[in-house]
Amino acid sequence: MTTGPQKPGSHQTVLDGLAAKGRLRALKDRRGLDFTSNDYLALAESDALRAAASEALARGVPLGAGGSRLLRGNHPEHEALEEEAASFFGHETALYFPTGFAANAALVATLPREGDLIVYDSLIHASVRAGLEPSRIAAIAAPHNDVNAMEAIIKGWRASSGKGCVWIAAETLYSMDGDVAPLADLVALAARHDAMLLLDEAHATGVYGDQGRGFAAAYEGAPNIISLHTCGKGLGAAGALALMPKLHRDFMVNRGRAFIYSTAPSPLMAAVVRAALKISAYADQERTQLMALVRHAGEGLKQLGLAVSGSQIQPVVLGEDRRALRLAEALQARGYDIRAIRPPTVPEGTARLRLALTRHVTAADLDMLFADLQAEMAKL
Fold it and tell me: Domains along the chain?
């Protein structure tokens, strides 16, 4: 028998528990040198994207869609973006979502069918896990970047009478560790088991590959590959593009609840993303500058005896939650926008600083950061 709404005190108990563990979150203003955003190419506040937005407004593109895509919310800018994105990334079709989280969750919750198996990397983004939560599909996590373990899971499932389709889910560049997936091995694994491969290119889009098309550019267009390219990180805009065969796009439009029942993304933002794709195609100089910062950061981290990821995402793993929080606060006081990342975002015992390298900073800024980081770590 229910006794009415949950008492407010129970919410406070949860918050108090988070605070006791050093995991209470709060919104903070943007202050200091940017070492935390995903605006890797510094496009979000660029004159080029401002001009694209102004031009779109001048020709009458609306800010809001006014409804879902299946009602009156479908706009020519959405369709133009999807057509251009499919061509740019080399896939048959694309579908534009308001966020990468919504896209990942919708893909995983919709496309696998009853009797299928989903094998996913243990460090995959929370958005994929969100799509799995209400699922009636068998889903098994494999150790991080362990293709052999994935294959063992698939073989074990088949041996126990699993007869459906296998879906393999991985990120190409992991958002908290900054390491790269063994893509060639994943593609080969999918081929051996006639499996579908879901690749999240969120942190690679705009930054890696020819014209910024991501790590999986060489594999795009294969009938068993679905890739996700977010537009709010390297591309500096907002939303996400799911690239997939037409069959799967049609299924998403008809069965993807998050797509069907959501107000369509802003047509104005779709126009800005179109411009961002064109900018990415000619942003080799910006990518070269960013990679120079990555190399410089790697040298500095080595001198401090810290692990180097080799990408624009550099974790400084500290272990204990409060230790990470204290170090982040000390660096913030010195003028750096650096945040502590704690469980459940990362596994227990791996609380860290996540240093995101963008074109908002210079090599001199990195040298100053590492000197201050060394000084503050000595105090812990």
Answer: 28-45+284-379 (3.90.1150.10), 61-281 (3.40.640.10)
What average pLDDT does range 227-249 have in this prediction? 97
Active-site residue, from 179, 200, 201, 220: 200
Q: Does residue 233 have an active-site annotation?
A: yes
Q: Under 8 Å CB-to-CB from 176, ≥6 apart: which residues?
A: 123, 313, 315, 341, 345, 346, 352, 354
Pick the catalytic residue from 91, 193, 229, 233: 233
74 in catalytic set? no
Q: Which residues pair with 180 in a beta bridge?
A: 173
Return d(Cα 24, Cα 12) in angstroms, integer: 11
Q: In whole angstroms, give the CA distance from residue 326 to residue 377.
A: 10
To the query of whether residue 296 is one of the catalytic residues in this protein, the response is no
Q: Please tell me whether residue 32 adopts helix, strand or coil conformation.
A: coil
Q: Which of 330, 327, 302, 326 is nearest to 314 (CA)?
A: 302
Residues 6+ apart with CB under 8 A from 322: 22
* 82 in Cβ contact with 130 (< 8 Å): no
> How much is the pLDDT for 7?
64
- pLDDT tens by residue, 273-320: 999 999 999 999 999 999 999 999 999 999 999 999 999 999 999 999
Task: Output the pLDDT for position 8.
Answer: 59
For 360-379, letters b (16+ CB in 10 Å) and e give bbeeebbebbbebbeebbee
Distance CA 300, CA 194 (A): 44
Annotated active-site residue 171? The verdict is yes
Establish whether 175 is a catalytic residue.
Answer: yes
Confidence of residue 57 (pLDDT cuts 50, 70, 90): very high
